[in-house]
Amino acid sequence: MKQNFTVRHGALDGVEAFLAVARRRSFRKGAAQMGVTTSAVSQAVRALEARLGAALLIRTTRSVGLTEAGELFLSRAGPAFEELVAASESARGLGQRPAGLLRLAAPRAVVPLILEPVIASFCRAYPEVEVEIAASDEMVDLAAGGFDAGIRLGQFIAPDMVAVRLTAQLPLVVVGSPRYLRGREPPKRIDDLRDHACLRHRRSNGTVASWQFVDGNEAVAVIVSGPLIAHDYPTLIGAAIQGVGLAQVPSPLAEAPVVDGRLQPLLTTFAATTPGVFLYYPDRRQVLPKLRAFIEHLKYSSASDLGP
Hints:
Layout: H1 15-24, H2 27-34, H3 38-52, E1 57-59, E2 64-66, H4 68-96, E3 100-106, H5 110-125, E4 129-135, H6 142-145, E5 149-153, E6 162-165, E7 170-176, H7 178-181, E8 200-201, E9 211-215, E10 218-222, E11 229-230, H8 233-241, E12 247-250, H9 251-259, E13 264-266, E14 273-274, E15 277-281, H10 289-299, H11 303-306
Parallel strand pairs: 3-4, 3-5, 8-11
Antiparallel strand pairs: 1-2, 5-15, 6-15, 7-12, 7-13, 7-14, 9-10
Helix pairs in contact: 1-2, 1-3, 1-4, 2-3
């Protein structure tokens, strides 16, 4: 049979008053400690005794003593109440200033793009905050995983989340390596992709993403084929650099290998855009100072730090 361990409503009423009186053996001194009247303390203790069904204090005109039940209650309730007070103070502290453990979930590709440029400065600015980053391309349940927030491309964020934009819209670029393109005609039209090995991205929901383009004012989704399906963009970029095939990725992720010549952008006139990168979290009412500080730090970091 399942037992009910729920604390009854009002079960803690009078405990603080009893502890104040019992430790000082005085209703007057206990009331002074709590900043209330002696009468109020006396009434609170009597109500507690009535609920417990046992006398806790021995009252005389000159002194206050403890019954056996009072001694037992003091020995057990005193440390427990102190723990409650300490827990309350700790929680209140986290609710009043940026402090504690800030847990973030983000795709591997976003870590160097968004987080690495600002983590060092944030940690210096808020030394009481510890930052933990779980780099995973799986869509995680923030609440179930104990995360304060996540960072994702906008198209993958559920509509019931609060989203904070971190970048502008990001072009999707098709890239290929000189090694792959050697001896092949680079694609000049979208239809040319049928003659090429195209590396594909499997989303966290299990579907394989089509390639997205814009032809004039028309959005075009293309089902491509090729030798490799990956669950993250860094793997696609690495495979493209090795000459396995062409890849379509958000442009900032391919910027470095394009600049140093390891990859070449293709079909740029047909490039579509993604909504950009966002930080997201479940509810504005649940934002602790540590997360609010991190959001503001990201939002007001330089544009060069956060990409285009």
